[in-house]
């Protein structure tokens, strides 16, 4: 159980690092702070809707909110798009 919690924390930490790396330099409407605000709002709504009883649901909500603008065509080059695809590939 503890290892699962640590794994989820590590996934979130990596997603936060990706957001900061990929969204730095974007205008204020779509910078890393925007993604973190969206995450805070999404988690607040998830708790209000009692999704907080399911840790997996909370993880999905948090990751979806953090990553919702990653790869947005308005802010990404083709080279960065390729590196993002590699980041999200699951390694067996």
From TrEMBL:
Output the Gene3D superfamilies linked to this UniProt entry.
Answer: HD-domain/PDEase-like
Note one Pfam family from the annotation: HD
- Please name the CDD domains in this protein's record: HDc
| Residue stretches making up the HD domain | 33-74
Cite the InterPro entries for this sequence.
HD/PDEase_dom, HD_domain
Spell out the protein name for this chain: HD domain-containing protein
Q: Which organism is this protein's natural source? A: Solanum lycopersicum
């Amino acid at each position: 159980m503890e290892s699962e919690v640590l794994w989820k924390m590590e996934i979130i930490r990596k997603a936060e690092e990706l957001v900061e790396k990929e969204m730095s330099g974007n205008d204020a409407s779509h910078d890393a702070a925007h993604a973190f605000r969206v995450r805070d709002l999404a988690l607040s709504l998830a708790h209000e809707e009692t999704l907080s009883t399911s840790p997996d649901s909370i993880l999905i909500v948090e990751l979806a909110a953090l990553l919702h603008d990653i790869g947005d065509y308005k802010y990404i080059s083709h080279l960065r798009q390729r590196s993002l695809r590699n980041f999200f590939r699951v390694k067996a």
